[in-house]
Amino acid sequence: MHARFLQPDIFKRAADVLLQHVHRGAGAVTNTFTLVLTVASQETDGFRRFLRSAKHFNYTIKVLGGGETWEGGDYMSPPGGGQKVRLLKSALEDIQEENKVILFVDSYDVIFSSGPKELLKKFQQAKHRVVFSAETLIWPDRHLEDKHPHVREGKRFLGAGGFIGYAPNLKKMVSDWSGADSDSDQLYFTKIYINPEKRKSINITLDSKCRLFQNLHGALDEVVLKFEDGRVRARNVLYDTLPVIIHGNGPTKLQINYLGNYIPNLWTFETGCTICNENLRPLSGLQVGLTEYPGVVIGIFIQQPTPFVTVFFERLLNLKYPKNRIQLFIYNQVKYYVQIQNYDSELIDMCRDNIDCEYFFSIDVDVVLKNEDTLRILIELNKPFIAPMMTKPGRLWTNFWGALSADGYYARSEDYVDIVQGHRVGLWNVPYVSHIFLIKADALRTDLKDPDLFESATLDPDMAFCSKVRNKGVFMFVTNMHTYGRVLSTENYQTNHLHNDLWQMFENPVEWEERYIHENYSKVLKDAFIETPCPDVYWFPVFTDVACKHLIEEMEHFGQWSGGGNDNRIQGGYENVPTIDIHMNQIGYEKEWHKFLLDYVAPVTEQMYPGYYTRAQFDLAFVVRYKPDEQPALRPHHDASTFTINIALNQVGIDYQGGGCRFLRYNCSIKAPRRGWALMHPGRLTHYHEGLPTVEGVRYIVVSFVDP
């Protein structure tokens, strides 16, 4: 808990909503078991989770401490919790019924796994007037270990985070309390328990086999999820029990968060996600152009050289959200890019300090945001912190971690693969997210108001940020309810070319294809989207306009065009029909070109020339430049290939006049080649051909002699 004063009406509102439900269906237990007492000074995500689980099982809750500043410490600091004892003592003074059963539990890290009827039954079976939760570990004074009674089986140390008993016995138990709010409640109750006279007088026992209470600290290996008959709860495999109350005491907040993704029935195999449509903030019906939409500050982080940055901003522009409700800030620490703005890592201050900002949307520039509705979807889910799940094609990598290792780094949760592969779809409270997330501005101005959220002496900024968010009690949800996009690989991105994205075929093949392969290429094989302008000459789309433009500009930037005569780039230096060109190997593109031939040309070859299978080997692949005053045409010739690929890189009638290709044997000419379309034809014997004169402008083609 964190010292912060809140008006008590927030707890009244939460409790009022709950109590509308809890009084219904309590059944036979209401005469005896009517009240759960808990302490909460803040309405945190953990508190809301506690209330939801209580509502699910129709518990009656009374919240103590609303409006008070919390002075009782937390699990990361020295023993505290005395404030809870003071509040409990005061609350019990108003309870006069002799047979009233009171359950006293923590709230921020507690979940109900079953209802009051089962809890009361198990309490009565314990045959004691007060039952405390039990722990494997003794805390806070290990010197008291020998004074604890031995148990025949199970845990022997008292846990103060949960106990149940009759009101008169609980009153007697806390009657002597006079400590400070910062004193230890655990130590106070422990000393009562290890005192034989007091233990007998109050009639206290421990829930040693976790039939009522499951404390997770020191017991993580004992607890698993049990899915059965459309229900999910925790099972203690050591004692084969089904505890009613799960408590993430001590340093087990991540584990209670994991269990809380399922318990009670938040997600089951039969129903899927049961909370995904709760407490939404619908945006449909709001008027675009007015101020009805929430104001959003988008912070874009460029932290290393990244491919496809232009595409990133194109996609950002296509977000389906009113542009007048967005403010955009860019943090660029890479000299390679033109620096639009240069802010420090506290871009979130742009939202904190802006009264019109309701959300801060953080996006790293290596995010491929495919879903144009992403921002709307995240806002409508109405969480203080929410991230869309992002993946990398063909890998189990995502932008979230399902668990943390003991040293705070990546660990794989049991459900991680199912979530990544879409076998489990919903909202997931996780310990780490990166690359993209949405935070409510209210959270930034309250729980996350510290100016050093990204700073740490030992952790990188992302890990430091997530650690501090967790420690402030803010749940980090990731959603895989839709497909949102993916994250680029940036590790081997080189920046020594003009258009470095051309070299991303291996690192980011999906993005490369989307950027450079013609939108109709998929129809070539599927729908026979292919033309035959001359016998055994096939014409099909393969490159986008951007690919054509980048290849031309890359070659002109390199600038070392051949002279059109004898060529020392070729073995022996002699070329039968020389052109003015630049070879792919001159710009270091031969591996990428071979992959292009294998992936995009070979399938067409094998379809159009049945029985022929190519390995797409080539000796020559080059970009040719035709200019009226340089080399306007090419005399008739055969190619030194089994088949040849000839791709037009610019547009006749716009960039040049004339040009084209004529196959002499068939007296067949192609005088209007389409930009990005490939001509594929046999190279030897049958397809003697010539390049027709370019009479104006500059014509570029890329040629590859395949299987020489």
Automatic annotation (TrEMBL):
It holds the Pfam family GT_PLOD. One of its GO terms (cellular component) is rough endoplasmic reticulum membrane. Its EC number is 1.14.11.4. Keywords: Dioxygenase, Endoplasmic reticulum, Glycoprotein, Iron, Membrane, Metal-binding, Oxidoreductase, Signal, Vitamin C. Residues 617-708 form the Fe2OG dioxygenase domain. Its main location: endoplasmic reticulum. It is an enzyme of class 1 (oxidoreductase). This is Procollagen-lysine,2-oxoglutarate 5-dioxygenase 1. The lineage of its organism: Eukaryota, Metazoa, Chordata, Craniata, Vertebrata.
